[in-house]
Amino acid sequence: MPAIDIVDSTWICTRPATLGAIVAEPANWRQWWPRLDLQVDERRGEKGMRWFVGPSEGGTVAGSMEVWLEPALDGVVAHYFLRLDGTGGRTLRRRAVTGLTRRYRLGAKELFWSLGSQLDPGRISRIAARRSG
After folding, report:
1. pLDDT for the residue numbered 88
2. Could you give the CA distance from residue 80 to residue 65 in angstroms, rounded to a whole number?
3. Residue 43 pLDDT exceeds 60
4. Lowest model confidence (mean pLDDT) among 87-91, 106-110, 119-123
5. For the residues of the chain, what is the DSSP string, one character each?
6. CB 115: neighbour CB atoms within 10 A?
7. Non-local CB neighbours of 66 within 8 Å, separated by 6+ positions
8. Mean pLDDT, the chain, whole residue set
9. Domain containing 27: what range?
10. Inter-CA distances, 30 with 15, 34, 120, 121, 126, Å
11. pLDDT over threshold 50, residue 40
């Protein structure tokens, strides 16, 4: 089991092809994950992307990352997987594991919530209107 093993899912009201195109854009993932050296493993179109993570975070970690897009209801579930280990046979210290796990877990959730808001800006107001009416 990798030292850092993050699995998360977020539902977004959009077509898989729309989100797939956004996720496939290199400028986006360079902005979203600037501390990770991402090298494309597999472009999966509307099913997402897979990357190798080269030595990152100052050369201390490497591994793999994936955004898998699964159609669900009138949208898509964005499944996020990040698996990192120390490089060169090094074991990551508990504090580093905790900090990196927190950063990438919260960052992914913020990222996908932000994309959901951009792609379906009326969704929150529709939910709030139903509850108050």
Report:
1. 87
2. 8
3. yes
4. 119-123
5. --SEEEEEEEEESS-HHHHHHHHH-HHHHHHH-TTSEEEEEEE-GGGEEEEEEEEETTTTEEEEEEEEEEEETTEEEEEEEEEEEESTTPPPPHHHHHHHHHHHHHHHHHHHHHHHHHH-TTHHHHHHHHHH-
6. 20
7. 48, 49, 50, 51, 79, 80, 81
8. 91
9. 4-132
10. 23, 5, 23, 24, 33
11. yes
pLDDT tens by residue, 54-83: 999 999 999 999 999 999 988 999 999 999
Q: Please count the residues of the chain.
A: 133
- Judge contact between 81 and 63, C-beta under 8 A: no
Tokens of 10: 């977020």
As for how many domains the chain has, the answer is 1
Question: Residue 129: pLDDT above 50?
Answer: no
Task: Check which CATH number belongs to the domain holding 25 and give it.
Answer: 3.30.530.20
Q: Indicate the pTM of the whole model.
A: 0.88
